[in-house]
Fold this sequence. Notes:
Layout: E1 2-3, E2 6-7, H1 8-22, E3 24-29, E4 37-42, E5 45-46, E6 52-57, H2 61-68, E7 71-78, E8 83-94, H3 97-103, E9 120-135, H4 139-152, E10 159-165
Parallel strand pairs: 1-10, 2-10
Antiparallel strand pairs: 3-4, 3-7, 5-6, 6-9, 7-8, 8-9, 9-10
Amino acid sequence: xxxxxxxxxxxxxxxxxxxxxxxxxxxxxxxxxxxxxxxxxxxxxxxxxxxxxxxxxxxxxxxxxxxxxxxxxxxxxxxxxxxxxxxxxxxxxxxxxxxxxxxxxxxxxxxxxxxxxxxxxxxxxxxxxxxxxxxxxxxxxxxxxxxxxxxxxxxxxxxxxxxxxx
Length: 166
């Protein structure tokens, strides 16, 4: 594994690429209490400032938790591609129709009664600290390197990881 910390713009680009590619995350709220409240969420987009956006119901438990304490933890995992992203951040709930219109897609109609649903909100999470693990090569190359290292006893260098400093 190679440690590669990324800073500012590079860190934002890495978060954007990984969060949008992996898409689903487990969002943890109410971080001061155990058990944490965790819910799967689909990433709608990551904007140019590195803010990660979701749509949510204003009456949801996680929205209520964010109102009490804006600290959140996002855990992205794609085991098939061996990509992992761990994000701590501060959340804000917005009802701005322009933002909701930008984030909304047809599939969101499963959860909401259209863009004008009175219960729809957007959650924007500004990362404060993040870590990533990302393979250097495609799956086939990584498997070959792992096989070679099993035979030779050498440790394979198949993964980049590091802190994303914003």
